[in-house]
Structures are given as C-alpha cells and as structure tokens.
Amino acid sequence: MKKGISQATIDRLPLYFRTLQLAADEQLQIISSDELGRRLDITPEQIRKDLATFGQFGRKGIGYDVHELKENIGKILGLPNRWRLAIVGVGHLGGALANYVNFSSLGFSVVALLDKNKSLVGTRVNGLTVNDASKMKRVVAANEVDIGVITVPADEAQGVADALIAAGVKGIWNFAPTKLNVPSTIPLVNEDLSIGLSTLSYHMSQE
Amino acid sequence: MKKGISQATIDRLPLYFRTLQLAADEQLQIISSDELGRRLDITPEQIRKDLATFGQFGRKGIGYDVHELKENIGKILGLPNRWRLAIVGVGHLGGALANYVNFSSLGFSVVALLDKNKSLVGTRVNGLTVNDASKMKRVVAANEVDIGVITVPADEAQGVADALIAAGVKGIWNFAPTKLNVPSTIPLVNEDLSIGLSTLSYHMSQE
Fold first, then answer.
1. Is any Cβ of chain B less than 8 angstroms from the Cβ of A93?
2. What is this model's ipTM?
3. Residue B17: enclosing H or E segment and its boundaries?
4. Which domains occur in chain B, in start order?
C-alpha cells in the first residue's frame, strides 16, 4: 500500500464505496467518473485523481466496472476484515450506534455492549445483552472484539481506552470529547459531532 | 470575513474553542501556542498559522489571552447567534442528539423535535414534546428554528429537507446517508459516521 495518501482522499473512499454499492444494487455494470461525480457532487477530475492513487482502475472512455471498483475500494479500506466492535457506554449515543444500520453494510458488526451502570447490565439493546464494564477483558476475548467504541463521559474515556487496549482491541473509535493517549500501534479516530455543527454555524454566519 | 479559508482550518476552530473553554474553566489567563498544541496534538506552527488567518491574536513571546481568543473564535464560528435547532426524526440517533450535552456549551440549543410516527408524537424526550412532522411550518415558526437536523431514513430525507426549507430554516445538518439538493443560499453539512469508522479500518489494515 502506498504511503502519503492524504486524509481527504481517505475520507472520500467510503463515499465512493457507498455510491458504488447503491449502483450495484441498481444492477449498474459500468459507471463513469462523470456519473460518480454527479452522484457525489465531486468533480470527475478529483475522482480520477483519487482512484489513480491506488492503482489503475477503469478504462478510458468507458468507465469503471462497478463491482470490481467497489471490491477494490473495500479492500483498500480493509472492509473484508469484517471488524467486530464493542461499544462501551450504552447511553443515548451508544444505544444509537448499536442500532446504526449502515455499519453492517460496510462489514462492521457490533458484537458486544458494556456499561459500568449496574442498572443497564443485563438489559438488551438491539439483540445484545449489556455486559458489566468491569468484565472488559473477558468480554473482548470471548467476542473477538477488534474495535473499541468509546461513548462514555469525557472524564471516564481514558480509563476505558486503557482497559480496552489492555483487553486486546486493535483500534479505538472515540466519541468522548477529550484527547486520548494511546500507544502509536493502536489506530485512534476521534469523532466530534460539534465540528460539523460549528462548520454549519460558520457558513450560516457568512454573508 | 476573509474568503478562501480552508475547510481544514475551519474544522480546527471548534477544537481551539473547546480547548480554550476548558482553559478558561481552569482560570488560565494566558495560553501559548505550545500549550494549545500540546493539548490538541497539533503543531504550534499550525496553530499560529490558523489563527493568523483571521487576524492578529496573541502577543509574541507571551501567548494568547484565553478569554479574548475564545470570544474571537466563537465570533468567527458564529456561536453568539445561539442557533436554535429542530431535530426531525426522533429515532435512536435523533434521541441521542437531543441529549447531546456539548451543544449547549457551544451556544446551540435543541428547541423542537418532530416525527411523522404518530406513536412518538406527544411523547417527551429530554424535556421536549415530540411534534407531528406534518406541522413543520407552524413548529419552525413558533420555536424560531434556525437549523433543521435530519435524522430520518435516507429515502425520506429530501422531503424533510424541502419541508424544513419551506418552513424557513437557514441551515441543514444532515445525518441521512444520502445527497440532498438544497438551494445554494442554505448551508448544508452532511454528517457521516461511516467515514470515521472506515478511516479507522483503513489505518488498522496498514502494516
């Protein structure tokens, strides 16, 4: 895999993947960069440039093979790994994520839920029983969890991250509004909903 | 306001704002770009460059006045507008957003909830009564809604966006995994949780 791919390009790959998935559902065999661009509001030049970063897809004047391109982008994104997620913190956001349907279509599955709140332990959310967060190691091992999803309050997030990593997860998806310290071998993605909202506010304030 | 500010810079402004808010809570008067950088894992050079885009903040060798910089970034982001949000679609995600505590600290408030599901209409979520989505115009006007938040399924999202805009909202925050067509006068931000997760997958797949 080539190094030095920009974050912006990586961010667009899931958009390409999803659009190709929809095109495949429509039984489309071939798609042009123009049509991909129209569906995504991205210029065809940008799309051709992004895809060229990873190799030679598509044929000039014809377009991309929908199935082949989808499979290739999926591989680049590591989706065939079919990562297994555990959500720690089954509050409103954790519960919403447990129910978020798009994950399974991308090859992610939520396999475990944990919370330290004893009144939640044992209840069921979207078919999964909430486990006691103190049993982290056992739950992560038993469910072969790859990714830990942190949806606890900010002041509890570092402790949860440490426990998840000690239990053997390979990546962290953090929703708590705080900076986490993790070993450089553990990929970490911070999700911050206030960024989108602030960006909207910024654009609404421009005349 | 200057034109041509990169999206990446705009994306960092809420991070600066939140970090300054925490620093203000700690009674810190002055903060250096080094300290801001340490707290955010961003280089001090990047921070000085970002802030210089908007004007002359801070004094060389001393640092930034925490309160002043926070106020200024807040103004750039349009936060003093104290935008009023209506959430359309009170499922798991809509319910989670209605409860998302960070919004109020940034000056956003959720003032109305709407859903077309009659069994939800009249129920209360986080102190707000769910309104019938067919009463969009009246609810938006009565609550002086600025921003419409779309958390309905993809195939209903365009209809909801049209109704929100007809009812007079000034911006759209879309969580439905679909491309919306809105007039160029209406700022639109699409939120896509699968991007963060796919990015994590990508990094976990690199050796």
1. yes
2. 0.89
3. helix B7-25
4. 7-77 (1.10.10.10), 82-195 (3.40.50.720)
